[in-house]
Design brief:
The complex is a heterodimer of chains A (about 230) and B (about 270). Helix content of chain A is about 35%, strand content about 25%. Chain A contains eight helices and nine strands. In chain A, strand 8 and strand 9 form a beta hairpin. The longest helix of chain A is centred in the last third of the chain and has 18 residues. Chain B has a single domain, classed as ABC transporter involved in vitamin B12 uptake, BtuC. Chain B is built from 14 helices and no strands. Chain B starts with a helix and ends with a helix. The chains are: A alpha/beta (about 230), B mainly alpha (about 270). Chains A and B meet through helix 2 of A and helix 8, helix 9 and helix 13 of B.
Chain lengths: ~230, ~270
Amino acid sequence: MTDAIAVTKLTVRYGDQLALDSVSFTVPTRTLAFLVGPNGSGKSSLITALLDLIPYRGTVKILGQSTKAVYHSIGYVPQRFSFDRTIPLTVRELLGLSLDFCHCQVGQHDEQLRRALDNVGVVDLVDRPLSELSGGQLQRVLLARALVHHPKVILLDEPEAGFDRQSEVSLYPLLRQLVTEQGLTVLIASHELDAARRWADQVLVVNGRLVISGPPTKVLTKQTLQEVFR
Amino acid sequence: MSDFTAIITAPFFIRALIGGLAAAWLTATLGVHVVMRRNSLFGEAISHAALAGVALGLWLQIDPLATTLLVAVLVGVTLPYIEKNRRLPLDNWLGSLLPTAMGLGVILLALRPGYQPDLVSYLFGSILTISQIKLYWLLGLAAVTLWLTYRYRQGLLLVSFDETLAKVSGAPVRRLQILFNVLLAIAVTAGIQVVGAVLVNTLLIVPAAIVRLWASNTRQMFRWTPLVASLLVVGGLLISAAANIPSGPTVAVLGGIILLLSNWLRPSV
């Protein structure tokens, strides 16, 4: 099995503060990987470094290439919405904007965005403005946006933050389905240890450095959790 | 023929109307992006700096439209680099450098030997005095800029909406930012010809803000905003002709009134 994500000696600094120190790991293709750690452990820094959105030292390879070379193969769901939700942008417009920069056939845009919305169960929201969506609906739309261009790797940065409880519970089976049925690789930064235990193929525990990586039964032990989350 | 009819059928008024409509269409279209970016200081910074361009034109004894455009574009291209300086937030930089640029323009004008130009016309617009040649320039600039805005509309919209999403979508964010700033600089230069450097937000922000209150998608924003801007310019020019008051400030006051009325009439969601 080849590696979808390969990180070598990744170091992230914010001024004098060291957020991540020489982190190395791989995530094989067709894997649902959970990135867990306490608040401020560097989960978001790791996701944003993988996306080349912040400066870092070290090497990041997605599908064997630099992130910039494979943006069209990456889907991203952010932790928070940095955009102004009162802008009268509809769900269709948001997904359509993303499609313009992927390597997709123009004539199939409408079909693609409907399929992506259907995938996450919100196809009925297609013509609704973003301002009228609940937090959970918006997060699902952002997940559809991440899926609309048929990516091979999806990175999610604590998407549970915007989900209501019901949406959160249905998120993980959906991610599992994307990995198993569509062959995607998913890396999700999360604070939900129970979900990681139940759904993950691989769990990465970070706390400024990579503490441990492996299958949940080996990683999420009482000893590790006490050490990291004390 | 009444005085009013004589004025609005006079060649200078027709020129003002055509020039005003071209500038309104252009400025308002870029204004939709400015409103989305919540960055109205950007346009204001360019317009204030443009006064230095006016002074430069007068010093060099060439049409100030050309030098205003040059300075505005230079400022537009420089702004992203100022934005990268993270020691101060961008609005601090813009708020601080905005009066500096304007002050520099006024000093340059004051130091200029000989005839002192009427500063008020640059600050508050003088569309009624637009020459035939300047009108052609304005129409040409508007045509090219609107074509570029249309050509790159999806990329510009994505960057205006969310820069991070634009980057991870693979959009050439940096190039689109520079393109937007250059287009904005041209639009602001056009707007200055109608309402002046101080009131340019009347065409840049107000029409987009009015339409934003009513629109349910961005397509409506881009369709209706230039129309509202055109109505403001035509209405402002007609009122100023009828009441014999300055045209730029009349457009500004009319825009403010319509914005407040829209906000009042728009049912809350």
